[in-house]
Predict the structure.
Amino acid sequence: MRKFLAAALAIAVLLSISVSRVECQQEMYWVGLNFEVRIKEDGTALVIVREHPFALNGTSLFGDEEVLNQLLEEAQVNQLYAALMFASSPEYVYAEIVDGPKVSMEDGVLADPLNKGEMIEYEGAVVTTVMVNLSTAEYVRELGQGEYEIRIVDPFTARDPRSWIDVMRISWDPNVEVIDASWKPARASGPSEQGEDFLLWMNYNEPSAPDVYILRVRLPGFAAGVAPEAHLSVRASRVDDAVRAVLSSDEGGYAVVRIVGPGEDQSRGVALEPGAQTTLEFWSDANPLKVEVYVGGKLVAEAPVSGGAITTYQRGELPKGGPLPAGLLIVGILILLVSLAVGRGSELEEQGGVELWELP
């Protein structure tokens, strides 16, 4: 559950609108948050976000057209939240919206709006589905013997004590073997329900909601990032404001390409084909610029952007692509800054006393 005002304030800063004006035009309300993370046998995770707005007294606002439209517009930021579930920064993981945001009356959201220790089911939800490639995720760690640790972070609890995921469901495909599960901090509640292919947490308040959900799994044929012996190189050039980056890799996988310079920071995800060149294009008038390539959260290649002859394009013809458009990234960063200002601003750290929950 999160307050909508934090997002509204971030948008206000972005658009240079005064805070008082936002408060007058937008009444504060809560948003119920139900997340499902589905671990796929192909090495990806689907993050399905279901949201439902309600007033401070618990009354549903799903029939309020203005509120619903605003929630639909804000739902684009779920791409950022999904990325932050698997990495400390969006540039360290490939994430993209594959469905939605859309209004669904077939979905519902569970929340405890009045903090009575009882979940209320709200009919209807704004649903957004984000695909995350686990081979690029910073919080995926190889343990050896075909086993991996997957850390799934609640992007709300660590930044604002008033916000948390009300219901978290973690499920997995038949060929994914979950060996055990744990969570941090140890004082947080364990799963309310369990099955052969899922774990379900009902989080009635922030103290009971885990900051981190940890799985130890076996994923057949999975490899985290490009193998250490793989060779990856990047060349970069520009003509006027058109910047082209050309990647070469002898292994397949996913990478995040970033261009950085004075007042410029753009990131874009890309699939790598073994033995083939992959080309990405950006628009930027910043100078000087450099290109950085990240795989599995690690910087694996970089190069300065030099002047040179490349094919020029009309601005509207450049492919938009990529996991995090610059505007969305700015909005996300502003949201995090607002949350840090009003929340406890704690960092995720290694904590002792982890409870282990053995699967039957």
Notes: The chain has two domains: 2-222+330-358, 232-322. Residues 2-222+330-358 form one domain. Residues 4-25, 308-331, 335-360 have pLDDT under 50 and may be disordered. Helices lie at 4-14, 19-25, 65-74, 78-84, 326-342.
